[in-house]
Fold these 2 entries.
Entry 1:
Amino acid sequence: MPEKKKHKRLRFALRVLALVLAALIVLPSVALLITRAVSTVQLHIGGGGIQERIYISLGGYEQYVSICGRYIGNPVVIFLHGGPGSPVGFLLYLYQPLLEGDYTFIQRD
């Protein structure tokens, strides 16, 4: 019986160690991606592009709308996310700047 408890404790300790190591690897990587995306967004302002973040009234409710693109003449992508209570606009900063040279993005949260 004591041998089983030892193995359980060891397995638990290994799982905790694995989670801590994963967090130490994943969190800095995510922080780097976000920092890179935000700094990229800052570089795109001006030069015939558009960077608008405004509130407009849609259906009698104030809605946040973001319009971003390097060139106004590019095709427009209207991003519609999954539904109420699950805004994902903050995730767009991870990949949207890479596509803003070819498209103008409009999103509503």
Entry 2:
Amino acid sequence: MKKLKIYLDTNVIGFLDEPTSPREMTETLALWELIRKDEFDVVVSKVALDEIDDNKNQTKVNTLKTFLSEINFETMEVTNEIHHISDLIIKMGLLTSKKHLNDRLHIGCAMTYGADLLISWNYKDLVNQRTIDGVKRVAISEGYGYIDIVTPRKLLKILGVVL
């Protein structure tokens, strides 16, 4: 059976160490166990790695880097193609402000990687029906095929994992 290709948004990695959100942390850790077992092909972009490094809490940065060292993943650089996808997302009227640049780049990285799923806890900007539908339209119209944006919770439910 073909492995699912997943793209990890920065906040999914961040929720590996987020005791203020115990449910999300537990679900993210459960997903991480599957990732550790090499159940998925995983990509993490340079954007996500830079966002982690930019965290002012060095202890958290070190913890997240330790988690990342436990898994196999491909690192994706930002290319002109990814910036083109970012521009298309803006033209659709999605994530239009400068503060959404990294969200658009995450989407572009997931598409160019050929990810089946972009995994995120960012309900406000990414895991909402408007963005999901728009991203699917861009992906299909540009020839990238189907991609969905889901939370770790939804992916675990799809896989039948009970916590």
